[in-house]
């Protein structure tokens, strides 16, 4: 169950990272509230996952999911460049996430 909490926390991190773009400096109320709720939910779920998952593993995976998700969201939603180097870098982060998961079983 803690791994599910960790994955959900990472997905909420993607949500709040994307949400920050829509808040326009927290000047738009609805996106600002949704972003703040996503932030709080992400940290709460991370704290639940940390009950049984080592800190370095959990935090690395949480950040990795957020980084990969935000990079992909940026390319899809905001037409950010999808260069070969960027894609290879995302794959390397995913490999790191998998490596952390495999090393903690």
UniProtKB/TrEMBL annotation:
GO terms for cellular component: plasma membrane. It is found in: Cell membrane. Gene3D superfamilies: 1.10.3730.20. Signal peptide: none annotated. The chain crosses the membrane at residues 33-50, 57-78, 84-102. GO terms for molecular function: transmembrane transporter activity. Pfam families: Multi_Drug_Res. Belongs to the drug/metabolite transporter (DMT) superfamily. Small multidrug resistance (SMR) (TC 2.A.7.1) family. Gdx/SugE subfamily. PANTHER family: GUANIDINIUM EXPORTER, SMR FAMILY PROTON-DEPENDENT DRUG EFFLUX TRANSPORTER SUGE. This is Guanidinium exporter. The lineage of its organism: Bacteria, Pseudomonadati, Pseudomonadota, Gammaproteobacteria, Lysobacterales.
